[in-house]
């Protein structure tokens, strides 16, 4: 459990450094994951795990005073829906996204990033 929290802490610290200049009070982290269909149970487990880790980090004061918020989006384990979710995420100006659902979903997302101005 400590290793999971450490991994999240390192990732969130990286996000904090990237957003320091943005002056955001709460840093939103989007989850582009399956929340319906046959893989919904995996998506829910992912949301619960992410929320647990972020709640723990936020309870300890966040990262250098910044708090984090999980925002889950349903990609239905579909490449097409994952791209629609990516558009919703960028429209809402959420700057960080974690994808789950397999390489068949990840590949189109990776190809779409330059087209919509997303950087890695």
Give the tags.
120 residues; alpha/beta; 3-stranded parallel beta sheet; 4 helices
| Fraction in helix | 40-55%
Please state the average pLDDT score.
83
Q: What's the main sheet like? A: 3 strands, parallel
Distance N terminus to C terminus? Answer: 28 Å
Number of helices: 4
The coarse silhouette is globular
Oligomer: single chain
| Secondary-structure-derived class | alpha/beta
Q: Please provide the ordered H/E string of secondary-structure elements.
A: HEHEHEH
Strand content: 15-25%
Overall strand count? 3
Question: Within the largest sheet, what's the order of strands?
Answer: 2-1-3
Provide a short characterization of the protein structure:
The protein is an alpha/beta fold. It has four helices and three strands.
Write structural notes for this entry.
The protein has 120 residues and is of the alpha/beta class. Helix content is 54%, strand content 17%. It contains four helices and three strands; from the N terminus they run αβαβαβα. The chain has helices at 2-19, 40-59, 79-91, 103-116; strands at 26-33, 67-74, 96-99.
Protein topology:
Elements: H1 2-19, E1 26-33, H2 40-59, E2 67-74, H3 79-91, E3 96-99, H4 103-116
Parallel strand pairs: 1-2, 1-3
Helix pairs in contact: 1-2, 3-4
């Amino acid at each position: 459990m400590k290793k999971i929290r450490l991994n999240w802490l390192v990732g969130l610290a990286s996000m904090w450094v990237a957003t320091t200049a943005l002056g955001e009070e709460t840093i939103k982290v989007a989850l582009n994951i399956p929340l319906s269909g046959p893989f919904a149970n995996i998506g829910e487990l992912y949301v619960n795990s992410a929320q647990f880790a972020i709640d723990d980090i936020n309870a300890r004061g966040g990262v250098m005073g910044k708090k984090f918020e999980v925002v889950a989006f349903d990609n239905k384990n579909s490449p097409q829906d994952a791209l629609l979710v990516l558009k919703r995420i960028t429209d809402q100006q959420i700057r960080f996204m974690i994808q789950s659902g397999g390489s068949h979903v990840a590949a189109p997302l990776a190809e779409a990033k330059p087209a919509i101005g997303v950087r890695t």
